[in-house]
Amino acid sequence: MSFELPITILRGLQTIFSIIVLGTAARSANVFSGLDEYYDGIDFVSIKIPVPAQIDYILFCAVWSILVVICLRLVARFVAIISHPVVVTVLDGLTMIFWFAGAIALAVFTSVFSFGTLQACVAFSFFAWAAFLATFLLDLLPIIKGAAGRNNGMIPQTAELQQTA
User: Fold this and answer.
1) What is the DSSP track for 59-99?
2) What phi, psi does 52 have (nearest 5°)?
3) Cβ(55)–Cβ(22) under 8 Å?
4) How far is CA 141 from the centre of its chain?
5) Which residues of the chain have pLDDT under 70?
6) Whole-structure pTM over 0.90, yes or no?
7) CB-neighbour burial class of residue 91 (10 A; exposed 0-12, middle 13-18, buried 19+)
8) Contact at 8 Å (CB) between 57 and 154?
9) What are 36-73's pLDDT values in tens digits?
10) How far apart are the first and last CA of the chain?
């Protein structure tokens, strides 16, 4: 059974979600990296707030996902080793784990600092994770069916047992 059309649609969704997360995370990083001013009683003091690691990590996830989709869709047409089912499944599984870790870390961070752009980033991070989970499972099905149907001569089949008896 070929899952080419659903995987193509999911790859498009993954790209769209990654671009949205890239934009919202970059905006959130901009908010955090801005100068904060406060009045200390004498004068205004400016301090620079570092960008939280959770936002940096989700930016990594978005860029990684865009590179993986480009690799799996464009480069795989020309380089046969990249289009191997195991390589595709490993890349999808790794990216799925990255998104899950990033989305959970960002959701926990959002419970402390919450504003609209950051909440949108969390939501679309989970959408991206779900899209990569779906492609991972669709990539895994043929591998599981192939492994279950393949014997490699290691375990004798019932017909072989009956002939030797």
Assistant:
1) HHHHHHHHHHHHHHHTGGGT-TTTT-HHHHHHHHHHHHHHH
2) -65, 150
3) no
4) 19
5) 1, 34-41, 44-47, 147-165
6) no
7) buried
8) no
9) 666 666 776 666 778 889 999 999 999 999 999 999 88
10) 38
